[in-house]
UniProtKB/TrEMBL annotation:
SMART domains per UniProt: GAF (SM00065), HATPase_c (SM00387)
Gene Ontology biological process terms in this record: cell wall organization
PROSITE patterns recorded: HIS_KIN
Protein's recorded name: histidine kinase
Presence of the UniProt keyword Repeat in the record: no
Transmembrane annotation, as ranges: 6-23, 35-55, 75-100, 107-128, 134-155, 167-189
InterPro entries cross-referenced by the UniProt entry: Bact_2-comp_sensor_kinase (IPR050640), GAF (IPR003018), GAF-like_dom_sf (IPR029016), HATPase_C_sf (IPR036890), HATPase_dom (IPR003594), His_kinase_dom (IPR005467), Sig_transdc_His_kin-like_C (IPR004358), Sig_transdc_His_kin_internal (IPR010559)
GO CC, alphabetical: plasma membrane
Keywords assigned by UniProt, alphabetized: ATP-binding, Cell membrane, Coiled coil, Kinase, Membrane, Nucleotide-binding, Phosphoprotein, Transferase, Transmembrane, Transmembrane helix, Two-component regulatory system
Lineage of origin: Bacteria, Bacillati, Bacillota, Negativicutes, Selenomonadales
Length: 567
């Protein structure tokens, strides 16, 4: 092998390595290789590898006749990457070019078409990731040997010997090494990107876990500042910026003297990311568009934050030097933005849920049955002449209920306070039932100061009276009992009324009841304490019903609510 031949081998392998590197770095081409069975993927791969194969005829050095060609490398790789359709079309294009432009034999052109097609059949059996460099080298070795064998059918003894010594051996070596090098380079780039992705995912999850408690309180200046500090600490970038749609919420790092929280957004790249709803990679100060003349930040990546399809802000990771935004920075920024978007959306949903529950609670507080009110007034009027003291007592109980319904009370109160309203309601109810209603209340001393959600007990008592005891003829008994079991507060409301039919009870348990009271209480308890708490209803018609309320036993609690909105 001469020095010129060795240089030509190096030149051909360098050309293949460069093509492999550019291919591996192209996300679009690699996506086409992973999912080749699509018209756009076929077309893209055919264009790429056809140019690669045809250019392979001219990969020799500028002096002398070419000794080595890499056209077969491009044809084989087209089949390995894109399947038989891509391999056939690239082989056909390359074969026609050889026959019409290079005046090669028809047999060689047909062989190239068959080589691309057969290599593509291998792609049907394995995924692109499963085709290792060693497998590709074996395919190239078989194809090159077949090409040598084909040449022997049409060559004389002298020309065959010259072909073997001058061209066949170097071409075979370059073909095998070229396919191996191409797949090795692509696999190395993919492995590197997987490492970047794993590091970015780990860092993003770490950031998400630390920012979650703050973003749960809402997407505002306070939560954004804490999140920006955490991101700045973990990512080691030169600056971190979090904005709303119109103003900067937090800015940590270099450039903070003119990018101030609470002021309007001044970076053109950030405004463009909000408007276009796509990531912006900044490689020069002109791309960033900061109007401050001495801004130290020159490169970075800006990613919009979403709630659904709506952009609510952006996050930016910035660097002070040009061309320092790496693939890892882009992946980290994208991963952080996705996780922060999810957290912001969950915080909004949680806020909406709390507002809905407050509205339902207010509706329940304001819900005074007109028939109950009308009957109570009539009863009071009847007692005004016959028993003024009784009428006065009933008026006092009614005033307690009216005050409870229309006043703004805390969301939590002690069981003793909750029972005071229930007692007022029962006092009025006894006037309707007369002597046939007995009420028994048994609570432990430890449970008197236990905290319970407001209006959690009264709807249970109302349900027992109206649907259990009132339709019953004869003696009626309503029992309320409270006790502590381990760390759980248990409250039972039991009646000896008509009970609930199995069909109706099944509807209530499934959440299909028309009543507001029971389902509202059960949903609120589940939302506040989790799925292990709430109401349990047991009924045995016509012997009565028992409703068990189960919540964590707490004597003191503090509910902190911080309001915040998206800017």
């Amino acid at each position: 092998m001469t020095v010129f031949t060795l240089l030509e081998v190096i030149s051909a392998l360098s050309f293949i390595a460069m093509t492999a590197y550019l291919t591996g770095r192209s996300r679009f081409i690699m996506r086409c290789a992973r999912y080749p069975f699509h018209p756009l993927s076929h077309f893209s791969l055919i264009v790429l590898f056809s140019l690669f194969s045809i250019t392979g005829n001219y990969s020799a050095l500028p002096w002398g006749e070419p000794v080595i060609t890499t056209r077969l490398v491009g044809v084989l790789l087209s089949g390995i990457a894109g399947g038989p359709i891509t391999g056939f079309n690239v082989g056909l294009i390359c074969g026609l070019y050889l026959a019409l432009v290079e005046n090669m034999s028809t047999a060689l052109a047909v062989f190239i078409v068959m080589a691309g097609t057969l290599a593509g059949l291998l792609r049907l059996r394995f995924s692109f990731q499963q085709l290792t460099p060693l497998t590709g080298a074996c395919v190239a070795l078989v194809a090159e040997l077949c090409q040598i064998a084909l040449f022997t059918l049409f060559a004389t003894q002298e020309s065959f010997s010259a072909y073997i010594m001058r061209t066949a051996i170097p071409t075979l070596a370059v073909g095998v090494a070229g396919v191996w090098l191409f797949l090795l380079t692509v696999n190395w780039i993919e492995a590197e990107q997987d490492i970047y992705g794993a590091r970015a995912a780990q860092l993003s999850l770490n950031i998400a876990s630390r920012t979650l408690p703050y973003l749960q309180l809402g997407f505002n200046t306070h939560s954004a500042t804490v999140a920006a500090h955490i991101i700045y600490e973990l990512t080691k970038v030169d600056a971190v910026s979090i904005t709303g749609r119109y103003k900067c919420l937090a800015f940590i790092g270099q450039g903070s003297e003119h990018h101030k929280p609470g002021e309007p957004i001044i970076s053109a790249a950030v405004k463009d990311a909000i408007t276009s709803k796509v990531m912006k990679v900044i490689n020069a100060p002109a791309d960033r568009g900061c109007p401050f003349p001495y801004c130290p930040l020159q490169a970075g990546v800006v990613v919009p934050l979403f709630t659904g399809s709506k952009v609510v802000g952006t996050i930016e990771l910035a660097r002070v030097n040009n061309d320092t935004v790496s693939e890892l920075d882009i992946r980290i920024a994208d991963g952080i933005a996705n996780l922060l978007s999810v957290q912001i959306q969950l915080a909004e949903l949680d806020e909406q849920r709390k507002m809905r529950e407050k509205a339902e609670l207010k509706a329940l507080r304001a819900q005074i049955n007109p028939h109950f009110l009308f009957n109570t007034i009539n009863i009071i009027m009847s007692f005004c002449r016959t028993d003024p003291d009784k009428a006065r007592s009933l008026l006092d109980s009614l005033a307690t209920l009216m005050h409870r319904g229309y006043s703004n009370q805390d969301d939590f109160l002690t069981l003793q306070d909750e029972l005071s309203a229930v007692t007022a309601y029962l006092e009025i109810a006894k006037s309707r039932f007369g002597d046939r209603l007995d009420i028994a209340v048994h609570i432990d001393d430890t449970t008197a100061n236990a905290l319970v959600p407001a209006l959690s007990l009264q709807p249970l008592v109302e349900n027992a009276l109206n649907h259990g005891l009132f339709p019953k003829l004869g003696h009626s008994l309503l029992s309320i009992e409270a006790y502590v079991e381990a760390t759980t507060l248990m409250i039972t409301v039991t009646d000896n009324g008509v009970g609930i039919s199995p069909e109706k009870l099944e509807q209530i348990r499934a959440g299909n009841s028309d009543g507001v009271g029971l389902m509202n209480v059960h949903k609120r308890l589940g939302s506040l304490y989790g799925p292990g708490y709430g109401l349990t209803i047991n009924s045995k018609p016509p012997f009565g019903t028992e409703i068990l309320l189960k919540i964590p036993f707490q004597v003191e609690t503090q509910v902190v609510q911080k309001e915040g909105g998206v800017s």
